[in-house]
Amino acid sequence: MKGPLFYAKILLFGEYGIIKDSKGLAIPFNSYKGALKSAKNLTGEAKKSNESLANFYNYLVNLSSDEVSFDVESLKNDIDNGMYFDSSIPQGYGVGSSGALVASIYDKYANNKITVLENLTRDKLLTLKQTFSLMESFFHGKSSGLDPLNSYLSLPILINSKENIEATGIPSQKEGKGAVFLLDSEQIGETEPMVNIFMNKMKNEGFRKMLSEEFSIHTDACIDDFLQGNIKSLFGNVKKLSKVVFTNFKPMIPTAFHRVWEKGIQTNDYYLKLCGSGGGGYILGFTKDFEKAKSSLKDYKLELVYRF
Known about the structure:
Layout: E1 6-13, E2 24-38, H1 44-61, H2 72-80, E3 83-87, H3 97-109, H4 122-140, H5 146-153, E4 157-161, E5 164-167, E6 179-184, H6 191-201, H7 205-228, H8 231-248, H9 258-267, E7 271-274, E8 282-287, H10 290-296, E9 302-307
Antiparallel strand pairs: 1-2, 2-3, 2-4, 4-5, 6-8, 6-9, 7-8
């Protein structure tokens, strides 16, 4: 048995803001992927994955939802027969490892599932997102459902608000100097503690004001610029966003990268932002000149995501 492939995702813009109804833009990232497989004798990562699936099964059996039900007998049977999720997606890196797993389980075991081939109306997209949110909450405590949705559809998704999401197109890549890249912090980040920090900060009126008057405005401007291909304006807005995140989201930025983050803003060689919830994993970078950014960040591992 080998299931279809489900890819990693990158939330280009909107981390934390989407919890509070600002815009977001997520794109599939095909460098990393996962699929359901089976083996008789499980060892190492495959054994750990099989045990995790058994726990997930217990959660899904007790999930009460009007929107989705599962063929739990087949799921249990497959887990007992050595099913595991074979994945190259790094865990705790903000690129949707649990999202790809959730998408694969929904695809194989959901009754009356909404398929990728249907006319995906806004209602269907919202139903999928709500279903995935319920499923992925097993892994994170609270999930927007966006990661599994992105992995399941393998399309860029524009979040206008909680109740308004749509599949979208992004400008095709060009062989220019500019790039979006991933910077490897070489630390694992855990989603739940970071979200808890954010929720505590939300109790502060000044933080809420910053979120609506600065963070959300810069995020929305970045998304509009990116989708319309306004590259010059995009970099101006990404710089503003990078500054706001550095000032207000410091606990989510690994301490070892505070100076690297500031250096980008000061030199304009690159601008950094959170990739997912932060706390480790990948940091997302934007640069007008990828060669210059590589030289400036020569001590770190970079991975190319998109070229301008």
